Amino acid sequence: MTQATILTRAPDVSAPTQSMRRHLLTGLGAAVVCGVVVWLIYWFAIGQNHVATDNAYVDANIADITPLVSGPVTHVLVSETQSVRAGQPLVTIDDTDFRVALALAQAQEAQAERRVRGYFANSQALSGQVRAREADIARAGAAIASAQADFERARTELDRRQRLAASGAVSGDELTAAQNQFSTTQAQLTAARAGRAQALANRGAAVGAMDVNNALITGASVDSNPEVAAARASVRVAQLNLDRTVLRAPVDGVVAKRQVAVGQRAQVGASLMSVVPIDQVYVNANFKEVQLRKVRIGQPVSLTADLYGDGVKYHGRVAGFAGGTGAAFALIPAQNATGNWIKVVQRLPVRVTLVPSELRRHPLRVGLSMKADIDIADH
Hints:
By secondary structure, this protein is an alpha+beta fold. The chain contains five helices and 14 strands.
């Protein structure tokens, strides 16, 4: 009797447990359904309008400080991690040789100016010589005219005496004298003509010399003369080389990778240090190719840095897309045109510019990890 009673009551003891299990399963199912519904609501309302990645890093257009002239380093004025302003001296190179070169160029400039002024003065002198040669030509012409008249008169006298000599009216001495006079005037005429030819030649030489001199000064003043301009250009080059003995910061930033010391000989093109413009850093966010379908330039981006955590938000804009994926620009690019090939989802760097005021409040450094979330709602 007791055993039958026990057997009939056993099912009543497990009934509450089964009911509780059903309630738990029902609640769990309802929670899962609610979670799925909430996720779907979030996805359609918010999630589908955002793409995010934690494969993002801070980058910047780092200024590499390299000398444009060579020489021994006399001063290193900054140290690693020091903040500098644009135009601030960083390194100085011994400028002795460059000062000498500048003084020599300035002396050559002064010589060129004096030489060109001499050209202008010489032009006036040569012009005077041309006028003098023209006067010589006129004088030679007058001499020819006079010699020609004397020659004609002597020839007439000789002809007359020769006619009279046949009749014995003129003595032999008179005829000889007339012949001598004729020869003399003929020689004088020839000399006068030679003198005019020489005067013409002298005038031609004077005109040629004046033309050569004028070619050096025509169309230009002393200041714009090519010789003076070339000398002044040499002065500017020498001054520029002297100025380049002081290496200045091209941008505001922080000194990094300093590898220069006093006494070291700086070589043209050798890197001495870098200046990182921390106020102008940007973020390269590497998104999967399947995430970029709706990403456009100008879309807003929300970012956080591992350095400050999720409590500090940065805001930016999509500035552009890289020209290729990281694999395309790798030192040894992937050879996908092979027999054995496995498709790998590629990532494309997306450049994001940041708000400068936020960078000043919470500075970043190149290489720091970031998380980027792009709002693609306005695609």
